Amino acid sequence: MSQSQDEVRVPDVDQVLRTEMYTHDIGFRGQNADRATLKRTRKALRTIHRLETMATQVYRAQISKKQTELDRQLIAAMENEVTHHTDSMVLLLEYNGNESMARLGFYIFGYVGGRISRLLGTKYILRLAEWVERKAIEHYEHLAGDVKWDKATYEYVFRMWEDEKVHQARWFYYLNHIDEAEAPAKHPPSDHAY
Questions:
Q1: CA distance 46 to 52
Q2: Are 157 and 40 in contact, with CB atoms under 8 Å apart?
Q3: Per residue in 119-155, pLDDT tens?
Q4: C-beta separation of 81 from 107 below 8 A
Q5: Nearest 10 degrees: Cα torsion 106, 64, 189, 162
Q6: How many Cα atoms occupy the beta-carbon half-sphere of 110 within 13 Å?
Q7: Which segments of the chain have a pLDDT < 70?
Q8: What are the tens digits of pLDDT across the range 100-126?
Q9: Which has fewest Cβ within 10 Å: 11, 35, 57, 193?
């Protein structure tokens, strides 16, 4: 991240956390794909699913009871990662794949890493969060070019990739403005019903 990205006022970006999905959006994918393409696609979706599992647990474990702006942003990031987790699982099932048992290790690593960073303080919370997003961005970049995605699946993957970039920029911003991260939350709860 460069300093110019720091000046963008990333915390002010109002990011879509959840996208709408309807029953008619669910279907089976990859029926016309060759076996090798299906294998690469499922493997890529399993990787995404594991990464999103880890990110969700990191953020969940980092949230404190202080109700700071950082806590508010961690809740928002966790909500977004839960959406990615679910979307990647649905895509995997639509490709007639299954979840990887290795995700348990990512779950544990995410939760333990998140807790340890919380014990060490704000700077370590932000460093871990930024690292998680940087690694996710690197994986998405690799997977975007490594797999022959159908148009709809690529749009899902691309949207998730773009979300990770916003998270990373936000954590980088707060690393340089820790006082803002530790300040009381900026926005009161919305009257919006889920």
A1: 10
A2: no
A3: 999 999 999 999 999 999 999 999 988 898 989 899 9
A4: no
A5: -30
A6: 23
A7: 1-12, 188-194
A8: 888 899 999 999 999 999 999 999 999
A9: 193
171 DSSP β-pair partners: none
62: Cα separation from own chain's centroid = 14
10 Å CB burial of residue 170 (0-12, 13-18, 19+) is buried
CA distance 184 to 25: 40
Tally Cβ neighbours within 10 Å of residue 180. Answer: 14
Q: Which pairs from 102-105 meet CB under 8 Å and 24+ separation?
A: 102/50, 103/49, 103/50, 103/53
What CA–CA distance (Å, rounded) separates 186 from 100? Answer: 39
Residue 18: per-residue pLDDT: 86
Tell me the whole-structure pTM to 2 decimals. 0.89
